[in-house]
Write a structure and sequence with these properties.
Elements lengths: L1 H32 L2 H6 L11 E7 L5 H13 L6 E7 L4 H13 L4 E4 L8 H9 L4 E5 L12 E4 L2 H18 L8 E6 L5 H17 L2 E7 L4 H14 L5 E4 L2 H13 L14 E6 L3 H8 L5 E4 L5 H12 L7 E3 L4 E3 L6 E4 L2 E4 L1 E2 L2 H5 L1
Parallel strand pairs: 1-2, 1-3, 3-4, 4-5, 5-11, 6-7, 6-8, 8-9, 9-10, 12-15
Antiparallel strand pairs: 10-12, 13-14
The chain binds beta-D-fucofuranose.
The site of beta-D-fucofuranose (GYE) has 14 residues, from helix 3 and strand 9.
Length: about 375
C-alpha cells in the first residue's frame, strides 16, 4: 500500500522537477530570442547552468567530534561544484529548532530534506507536512519512531545495538582470556542523549550483555554525549561506587571527560583490572585524541562509529533523481579499535568482526 503512495509521490515530484526545469529553459530561450541581435553574440557555452539540487539539512547540533565530522562530510559532499545547494541548520540539541527548520525548508520548496533527528519520538506531524508538500525526507544517523514508515523516504546510519554488542563481546572475551570472573566486573554506563537512537541501541547492548554474562551494572546515567557531562557524572559515580572498575561511555567525548575524573580522583584509566585500573570503553573513534588514548591504553576498546555519511546520502539522492527506489535502511560499515591483540576478533549474531590494534603509525596518519 505505502509503496504505491510512495511511487505516486515520486512521480509527482519528478514531474514537478521536470516542470521547473522546463520553465527555466523557456525563460532562458525567451531571454535570448527577445533580443535577436545580442543573441547572435552569445557564445554557445553560456547556455544556462543546470539548476542545483536544493537540500535542506537539519543537523541536530554540535555536541561531539563525531557530529562535527558528520556535518563536515555533508558540507564537503553537497557543494555548488557538485551541483547542489545545501541549506544547513543547526538544531542546537532542540527538537523544536529542528521542526522549525523543516517547516522553513518546506516553505523554501527545497528538493530534499535531510534530517539528523536529536531523539526518536515526536516527528509524525512535521514529517506528514513534508510528505504533503511532496518533499522526500532522508533520515541521517539517528532514526525516528514514526507511526508510518512512508513518512520518510529512507535512512542512512549505524546499527547502534550491534555496536554495543560488539564492544561487550570484546569485554567478555578479554576478561575470559585474563582470567577475570564475571562477578568481578562492576560497570557504570554513561549514556548519551536520552531518547536518541545511539543511546537507545548502545544502552540495550550493554544491558543485555550484563544480564547474559552476570556482570554487575551499577548505574546508567545520562552524559549527553559531551565531555563536560562525562567528567561531572564520572566524578559522582566514583564517589558512589568504590568497586566500579569498568566505565562504558556512549561516545568518546564522554570518555575524555570520564578519564579526567578518574585521574582527578587519583586513579588510573587502563585495561589492567587486576592492578586496580578502571577500564574505559567507548564509541566513535573519530578524533586523533581518541586514537592516542587507545594507544596509551587509557581507552581499552572503541566501537567505531562512522560519521562519513555524505557520500551515502548523495547516492540515495542520485537514485531518487533517476526515479529509482533506494534501500529503505542503509547501514555504514564500522570496525573496532583496541590497545592490544588479546582479542583478535569478535563474533556477534554469527558474524565475525575484526578488531584493529591502534599503532603509532595509524595515529601519524
Ligand atoms: O556517537 C555521538 C554523537 O548519533 C552516532 O551522536 C551519533 C552519536 C555519536 O554525539 O558522538
Amino acid at each position: 500500500m505505502y509503496k504505491f503512495t510512495e511511487r505516486r509521490e515520486k512521480e509527482m515530484r519528478l514531474q514537478n522537477r521536470i516542470l521547473k526545469a522546463g520553465i527555466c529553459l523557456l525563460a532562458a530561450v525567451s531571454l535570448l530570442t527577445g533580443c535577436d541581435k545580442k543573441s547572435e553574440m552569445v557564445p554557445a557555452e553560456t547556455s544556462p547552468a543546470p539548476k542545483p539540487v536544493v537540500i535542506g539539512f537539519s543537523q541536530l547540533g554540535a555536541e561531539s567530534d563525531w557530529r562535527s565530522a558528520n556535518t563536515q562530510s555533508m558540507k564537503t559532499t553537497f557543494t555548488a561544484e557538485n551541483g547542489y545547494q545545501l541549506i544547513f541548520e543547526d538544531g542546537q540539541q532542540k527538537q523544536s529548532n529542528q521542526i522549525r527548520a523543516i517547516r522553513t525548508f518546506i516553505q523554501q520548496d527545497v528538493d530534499y530534506i535531510v534530517l539528523a533527528p536529536v531523539t526518536e519520538t515526536g516527528w509524525d506531524t512535521v514529517l506528514q507536512e513534508a510528505k504533503d508538500a511532496g518533499i522526500p525526507v532522508i533520515l541521517l544517523d539517528r532514526q525516528v519512531d514514526a507511526t508510518d514508515d512512508s513518512l520518510f523516504t529512507c535512512w542512512v546510519g549505524s546499527d547502534f545495538e550491534l555496536e554495543g554488542r560488539k564492544v561487550t563481546e570484546w569485554l567478555r572475551q578479554y576478561t575470559i582470556r585474563k582470567g577475570i570472573d564475571p562477578s568481578e566486573i562492576h560497570i557504570v554506563n554513561i549514556q548519551g542523549t536520552i531518547g536518541a537512537s545511539a543511546q537507545i541501541g548502545r544502552t540495550k547492548g550493554l544491558a543485555r550483555a550484563a544480564e547474559e554474562n552476570g556482570w554487575e551494572l551499577l548505574a546508567e546515567v545520562p552524559g549527553d554525549f559531551t565531555q563536560t557531562k562525562g567528567r561531572e557524572v564520572m566524578a559522582e559515580l566514583l564517589n558512589m561506587y568504590e568497586d566500579l572498575n569498568v566505565v562504558y561511555c556512549e561516545n568518546d567525548n564522554e570518555a575524555f571527560g570520564a578519564i579526567e575524573a578518574i585521574e582527578a580522583a587519583g586513579k588510573k584509566a587502563g585495561s589492567d583490572l587486576q592492578a586496580g585500573e578502571i577500564m574505559v570503553i567507548s564509541f566513535d573513534g573519530v578524533k586523533k585524541e581518541a586514537m592516542e588514548y587507545v594507544y596509551e591504553d587509557k581507552i581499552s576498546c572503541i566501537g567505531e562509529c562512522n560519521p562519513e555519511q555524505g557520500a551515502m546520502v548523495q547516492e540515495v539522492i542520485g537514485k531518487l533523481e533517476r526515479g529509482e527506489t533506494p534501500e529503505k535502511f542503509s547501514y555504514v560499515q564500522e570496525g573496532m579499535l583496541t590497545h592490544d591483540d588479546t582479542v583478535p576478533e569478535v563474533m556477534v549474531g554469527g558474524k565475525k568482526y575484526p578488531v584493529t590494534v591502534v599503532t603509532g603509525e595509524m595515529i601519524q596518519e
